[in-house]
Amino acid sequence: MESGSVLAVCRVHQLLGDQGSVGVTAIDKRPARGPVKVHKLGLRGDVQANRVHHGGEDQAVYAYSQDDADFWAGALGRELPPGIFGENLRVSGIEATHAVIGERWKVGTDVELEVTSPRVPCATFQRRMKEPQWVKRFTEEGRVGAYLRVIRTGSIQAGDPIERTFVPRHGITIGRWFSEPDADVVAALRGAEADGEIRLQDEYHTKFGVLLRRLGQ
């Protein structure tokens, strides 16, 4: 199976004032030095300011791939260091956006993570990037990265290997669900969950209903 590595482990540097409903944001993530403990709600020392839309066990860790960061660095004409996207893990050699929903990663010697859902860009992210129409651009490009839940806790650090240990048969990737959802995608994910192959966030079932109604099914 595909393998990769952790380039940086990032956690909140400081809370920043923000125009959103919470008034602050924890999007300012920066690389940590040395090992960082990982628990069920994410990295030790990290925080989510708006827990209505971020965090919880199903979105405990956010991973973004260096290849996607390199694309945006070229498109925007500036360096994009680890943490700039609000990610906890900047990874190389493994594509977060193209990860199959429900696949599992072994990170380092003991941490196991499970891919759950795509990152949905918001106004806070746009303010962080200071790029006009950023939400629209990020959405249209579809290089969204992946949220993960923590299956096994432990410690991780920059340089740790990442190994894909399980890939569900349904084959629906984070990117396809985000950019090209259709009735076939819904059927595949529902079937995989019914078979016990994956465990979907509750939000998926709400979105399934909305999508199918829009498609007239």
CATH superfamily: PK beta-barrel domain-like
Residue stretches low in confidence (pLDDT < 50, at least 5 long) are none
CATH fold-level assignment: M1 Pyruvate Kinase, Domain 3
Question: Can you give the mean pLDDT?
Answer: 92
**Total separate domains:** 1
Helical fraction equals: 25-40%
Main sheet record: 7 strands, mixed, barrel
Q: Strand order of the main beta sheet, please?
A: 1-8-7-11-10-9-13
Beginning-to-end CA distance, first to last residue: 37 Å
Number of helices: 6
Radius of gyration over all CA atoms, rounded: 17 Å
DSSP strand content: 25-35%
Describe this structure in words.
The protein has a single domain (3-215), classed as PK beta-barrel domain-like (M1 Pyruvate Kinase, Domain 3), CATH 2.40.33. The N and C termini lie far apart (37 Å). The strands form 3 sheets. It has a 7-stranded mixed barrel. The radius of gyration is 17 Å and the shape is globular. The chain contains 6 helices and 13 strands. It has 217 residues and is an alpha+beta fold.
